């Protein structure tokens, strides 16, 4: 934002109108913690991670959403007035264009999901057989996962290296959730 050099660990702002993330020094990040600072154009990406141990989603509900893989993230996009779902792929973040009406029912029954900050916090889901691992994470964490998949995917099934890295990513998310 201000051209001050930043290191590998830094904060992010979401440009709500242009649907993009911006790297920010700590001072710029703090400037935008008050939502009125940019009249809603920029919103800080929170830094908290939470594990949702009470998350309930059935395999049938997952299948009804039509997400063809076992990893997805969903968030409320305020300018569209609806939840959107993406999944990481070798081509980047792929948006699911299917009806997410069933997801609205899941959110309605889960107080943690109802408290997510639109545009900047997401529900990160990983399907493990017939159960789901659910984390509430900053949106930039989801795009970090997209980058891992995009950079390390090989062949049709991804290869062992990408799956080790995905497992390590989720272990890191779990660790940050405990803190």
UniProtKB/TrEMBL annotation:
Pfam family, one: DUF5947
InterPro entries per UniProt: DUF5947 (IPR045991)
Source species, domain of life: Bacteria
Name assigned to this protein: Uncharacterized protein
Species of the source: Kribbella sindirgiensis
